[in-house]
C-alpha cells in the first residue's frame, strides 16, 4: 500500500482518537466503545460478505467464540487477559475455518450458506447455555481488576484507544484487500465464481482465507466486548443481535468498502441513541423510527452512504481495477 492509501486511515483514526479527550461524558464514552466494537464486527463481516460476496447471518458464532474463550480462560484457568484475548481470536479463526470448509466444500452459497451460518450460531448458543464451563444460563462474570495486564482501565478513554487500535488494524486489512491480488481474486469469485475458476483462481482456498480473516476480526470484537463489560452469557455471545449489527453496519455504510462498516456503525448507533432521546419514555417508538430510517437508507442508497454520488466513481474504478487484476 502507498502512503496515499494509508492517509485516509490515519486521518480517521486520528480524529476518533482525539474524541475521548474532548471532555466526553461517561455515557458518550460507553457509546463510543460500543460503536467501535460493532464497527470492528462489521469490518469482519465485510471481508467475507462485502468483498467475498458470501453473506453470513451467523457471525455471532465467531463473536461468541472469541468472547467465551477470552472469558473462560481468565475465569476458569487464570490466564492473563492478553493471552486469553489472543487465544479467543485464534479459536474464532478455527471456528471460521471449520464452518467455511464444511460449507464451501459442499458447494453452499447464497441463502444456503447464510442459513448454515445462522444454524451454527444457534447450536453454539444452545451448547453455551447448558455447558458448565461457560457458566450455563448464569453466564460468566470477570473479576474487576483495573490494570494494563488485565486489560481493564479505570479511565475508559484508554479502552477507547485499545478498541480503536484493533479497528485501525482491520481498516488496514480492508485497504490491503482493496489493493492486493488476493482481494482481486476475492472480488472475482464474488462476481462470477465459475469464470474465476476458469481463469485459474482456487476459489475454495480464496474463500477459506477470507472466512478465516473475517472470523479473526469478529472474534477480536467479541473478546474486547467481554473485556469491557466484564459479563457474558449465551444470549449476548451467540445472540442474533450481533449478527444483525455486523450485517447492517456495512450495508448502511457501504458494503465492500474499507470504511463502510465504520460509517454504518456510527450512523446506526448514533441514530439509535438520537431516537431514544427524542422518543422519551414512549416504549418502542425509537425502534420504529430507527427501522423506518433504516428502510429509507436501504431503499434510496442501496450501495450505502459511501455509495452516494461523490464516492461512486471511485468505487467503480476500484472494482474495475480489481477485476482486471483478477483476470
Automatic annotation (TrEMBL):
It comes from the Bacteria. InterPro entries: ABC_transp_permease, LivM-like. The chain crosses the membrane at residues 27-48, 55-75, 81-104, 158-177, 210-232, 244-267, 287-308. GO terms for molecular function: branched-chain amino acid transmembrane transporter activity. CDD domains: TM_PBP1_LivM_like. Pfam families: BPD_transp_2 (PF02653). One of its GO terms (cellular component) is plasma membrane. It is a multi-pass membrane protein. Keywords: Cell membrane, Membrane, Transmembrane, Transmembrane helix. Coiled coil: none annotated. It is found in: Cell membrane. This is Branched-chain amino acid ABC transporter permease.
